[in-house]
Amino acid sequence: MRVVLDTNVLLSGMAVRGLCEALLDLLFDSPSHKVVLSEHILTEFRRQYREKFGMTAEETDLAESFLRANCELAVPNDVPPDACRDPDDLPILGTLVAGEADCLATGDADLLALGRYEGSCILSPRQCYDILR
């Protein structure tokens, strides 16, 4: 299964113990799953990893290097501005389409309200974890 992780799921999975960490472990430990990200997601990850979680530049570089080595990068497709309520979420939907992902794991209420986009499902981290397990 090809899965896009939004920035907050990615941050939670990399920085704290819990469900998102278990989801990342499940995705990275299985050769049948692939995490798809974009430069947009990685840029947001890098900024918030330092600001919100207080990681050092070295810790941030290591985390980003791990993600680049273990994820596929997609260039987000253009998405119509009316595709979702929050314009900041358009690059996430664009990554979902460009990466030909089966689903997006997100905690974002605006994205979850869509349920599906361009044939891909939009799931909470719990839903995604339960399906992959």
Descriptive labels:
globular, six-stranded mixed beta sheet, alpha/beta, single chain, 133 residues
Written description of the protein model:
With 133 residues, the chain is α/β, with parallel strands linked by helices. 51% of the residues lie in helices and 14% in strands. It is built from 7 helices and 6 strands, in the order βααβααβαβαββα. The protein has helices at residues 7-15, 19-29, 39-51, 57-70, 90-98, 109-112, 125-132, and strands spanning 2-5, 34-37, 72-73, 103-105, 116-117, 120-123. A 6-stranded mixed beta sheet has the order 3-2-1-4-6-5, with helices on both faces. Helix 1 crosses helix 2, helix 1 crosses helix 3 and helix 2 packs parallel to helix 7. The model has no long low-confidence stretch (mean pLDDT 97).
